[in-house]
């Protein structure tokens, strides 16, 4: 499998190897998804200062799709000018997550997300796999998660870019408060 480097690798860590490792670990669990559609990967910043610096870096390498409050902290999503490549798999977007207030986070690549046609079918076909199914019935953007040695894989029914487009259209994006970064 050909793994290509990416201009952001020196800043975020080797992204294509991360994606490839996650897909290898998924295959080792005998979870096969066809076709493999990795719509994005996520990098979690350890501090708000790092988050703000990385927003500037990512803006030079992609187009900001949205920044909003999710789970009590800002998350920004970028459509990369040059997708991350792992063999035949192309990852078009990156999500940048700020740390949750009051929690300690290690900076680094955290998860990838795949689009699948059916979450119940995925779970039923792999009843021996410890999927996290707590969000499977979410009305807006249901998902199923799987913790692996290298990180987490989340499975969704639609790409993050589609969900963002809908949220922008319907006004569902919660803006980052204007004073959120005042005390850093």
Short description:
The chain has 5 helices and 7 strands. The chain has 184 residues and is α/β, with parallel strands linked by helices.
Secondary structure tally: strands: 7
Binned strand content? 25-35%
Q: What is the number of helices?
A: 5
Largest sheet: 7 strands, mixed
Termini separation (Å)? Answer: 43 Å
Give your account of this protein's structure.
The chain has 184 residues and is an alpha/beta fold. It is 26% helix and 32% strand. It has a 7-stranded mixed beta sheet with strand order 2-3-4-1-5-7-6. The longest helix has 14 residues, at 15-28. The chain starts with 8 loop residues before the first helix and ends in a 14-residue tail after the last helix.
List the helices and strands and how they pair.
Layout: H1 9-12, H2 15-28, E1 38-44, H3 48-59, E2 62-70, E3 73-86, E4 89-97, E5 108-115, H4 119-125, E6 143-148, E7 151-156, H5 160-170
Parallel strand pairs: 1-4, 5-7
Antiparallel strand pairs: 1-5, 2-3, 3-4, 6-7
Task: Throw out a few tags for this protein.
DUF991_YecM-like; VOC family protein; Glyas_Bleomycin-R_OHBP_Dase; 32% strand; alpha/beta; 184 residues; single chain
């Amino acid at each position: 499998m050909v793994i290509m480097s990416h201009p952001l690798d020196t800043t975020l860590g080797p992204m294509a190897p991360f994606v490839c490792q996650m897909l290898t670990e998924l295959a080792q669990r005998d979870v096969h998804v066809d076709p493999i559609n990795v719509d994005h990967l996520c990098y979690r910043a350890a501090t708000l200062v790092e988050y703000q610096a990385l927003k500037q870096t990512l803006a030079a390498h992609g187009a900001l799709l949205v920044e909003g409050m999710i789970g009590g902290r800002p998350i920004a999503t970028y459509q990369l000018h040059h997708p991350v490549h792992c063999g035949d798999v192309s990852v078009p977007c990156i999500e940048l997550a700020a740390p949750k207030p009051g929690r300690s986070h290690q900076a680094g690549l955290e998860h990838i997300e795949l689009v699948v046609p059916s979450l119940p079918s995925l779970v039923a076909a792999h009843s021996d796999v410890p999927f996290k199914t707590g969000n499977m019935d979410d009305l807006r953007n249901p998902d199923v998660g799987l913790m692996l040695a290298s990180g987490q894989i989340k499975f969704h029914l639609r790409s993050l870019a589609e969900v963002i487009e809908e949220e922008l259209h319907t006004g569902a994006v919660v803006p980052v408060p204007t004073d959120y970064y005042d005390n850093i």
